[in-house]
Amino acid sequence: MTLTNINTLIDFDKWATNRILDIVATVPQDQYAKNLNSSHGGIRGTLVHTYSSDWVWLERWKGVSPTAPLKEEDYPDFPFLKSKWDTLRAERDAFIASLTEQKLKEPLSYKDIRGNPYTQPLWHLIQHVVNHSTYHRGQVVTMLRQINVKPVATDLVAYYRQLK
């Protein structure tokens, strides 16, 4: 995987997440916070989980292994989560911009939340984060449909089509 590929994946992730967040911004707070019995409760829980994962992985890439995910209750409403996510993405963009082809391929050692050690090439981990976000955006799409909100397309092919 090259830096060009990684930059494309990161740009896709921002594009797709922004599309979902723009729709979620229209959802009333009670529906946003409602437990819809998904793997992370509802829309808020799923978005906070995704944001938390983005944060955990960026910290790992920078050499710090967090010992706990972020807590949903610390992100009570959508505007607060969105502002934090915007800041985090700016940090991630700066990190990605600092990478070289060599750094991308180097093994990165980190610990998971439970303290288990792992070592993998950085590009594997970046690719994982984008894939993880894609999975949870799909869950949010389903939850939006459950509360009668029309979602938007966030497929990779839709991203490529809009690049024309």
Topology, element by element:
Elements (H helix, E strand, L loop, with lengths): L2 H22 L4 H5 L9 H19 L16 H20 L3 H5 L1 E5 L5 E5 H25 L9 H7 L2
Antiparallel strand pairs: 1-2
Helix pairs in contact: 1-4, 1-6, 3-4, 3-6
As a whole number of angstroms, the C-alpha radius of gyration is 16 Å
Q: Assign the CATH superfamily.
A: dinb family like domain
Task: Report the structural category.
Answer: mainly alpha
CATH topology: Four Helix Bundle (Hemerythrin (Met), subunit A)
Output the helix-strand order.
HHHHHEEHH
How many strands, what sense, and barrel or not for the largest sheet? 2 strands, antiparallel
DSSP strand content: 5-15%
What's the β-strand tally? 2
| Name of the level-1 CATH class | Mainly Alpha
What topology, given as strand order, has the largest sheet? 1-2
Shape descriptor reads globular
Structure description:
This protein is mainly α and 164 residues long. The chain has one domain (3-162): Up-down Bundle (Four Helix Bundle (Hemerythrin (Met), subunit A)), CATH 1.20.120. 63% of the residues lie in helices and 6% in strands. It has helices at residues 3-24, 29-33, 43-61, 78-97, 101-105, 122-146, 156-162, and strands at 107-111, 117-121. The protein has a two-stranded antiparallel sheet with strand order 1-2. The longest helix is centred in the C-terminal third of the chain and has 25 residues, at 122-146. The radius of gyration is 16 Å and the shape is globular. The mean pLDDT is 97.
